[in-house]
Amino acid sequence: MTTPKQRGFFMPAEWHPHSHCRMAWPTRMAVWYSEAGLKAACRAYATVAKAIARFEPVTMLVNADQQLDATALCGPTVKILLAPHDDSWHRDSGPTFVISKQGELAGVNWQFNNYGNKPQLLEEEYARDKALAKYLLETLNIPCFDAPFVLEGGSFHVDGQGTALVTEQCLLNPNRNPQLSRAEIEAGLMAYLGVEKVIWLGEGLLNDDTDGHVDTIACFVAPGKVLAAITDDPNDVNYAPLQDNLARLKAATDARGRAFEIHTVSIPPAHYLGEMRMALSYVNFYIANGGIVMCSFNDPDYDQAAKNTISALFPDREVVQIPALDIYTGGGGVHCITQQQPLPIADEDD
């Protein structure tokens, strides 16, 4: 089986220019707990889509029976594409796009098992999500690489220069690839993302349904620069795991041998969905062409401080903050519901 790396493909950093942002419309009521929760999620998704559409084209994947509602909420700036799906975390169930130095574009179709088969759904209940990446690539006539292992797009971040960030909690979880060793998982990431080095963080936030996707706790913001989530409250249950991740980043170097310039942003104080604390994070933002679309959590002081931090890290981009509690009711944030399609131009130093 030929891999992307063997063909000269690699995943560029998120700040590489995009041709599109792709999203998928909320559809499974059980994810949002009620009809009211689903409707609130749809409104929030539409708000995110319209915000991103100010900076780059956005396509919303929609099931046929929701086309009219999605069209009405998203408005004329968002393109609607009919595509069968079960859930709406397109970062995870959609394709990951890679490019080559020859200006080619392709997509990676990861195996998808609904986050380790949680909640314990029958396979047919996420069958459309399992088939979504390949279906979309075929519809768009984009070449497809079928990866031979389970992975979700939110479980890694890349710098476009050979380095990937992941977590042990997610990628080493026996509910994904129990047959693979740590070294074999690293080899798979290198082969399908075109990276040279994998940096392992530890755990994600409490009650993260994804088993600790890295896009909630750390991300690259420029070559050699990382933004990490922290909390200043030593009594917060997330304090020790986030400090451990920070220590790992301070001890690490990237694929080019650089020590990281590390910036931090505090997670907000605890918010609860019933009795369950939500896994909220400002790191879960989307880098658009000329813009940043990020979460706010109805906590003015923390929301503003996070916006100030991210604005300083991206002085050439307009930062737009979107109320995200209705999205996080389903288990994720702005980054989780979006997937960039890079322009097929290659520059490893972008």
UniProtKB/TrEMBL annotation:
Domain of life of the native organism: Bacteria
Pfam families: PAD_porph
Keyword annotations from UniProtKB, A to Z: Hydrolase
GO biological-process terms attached to the record: putrescine biosynthetic process
Any one GO molecular-function label of the UniProt entry: protein-arginine deiminase activity
Catalytic site positions: C336 (amidino-cysteine intermediate)
Name used for this protein in its record: Putative agmatine deiminase
Enzyme Commission code(s) on record: 3.5.3.12
Similarity field: Belongs to the agmatine deiminase family.
Coiled coil: none
Reactions listed under catalytic activity: agmatine + H2O = N-carbamoylputrescine + NH4(+)
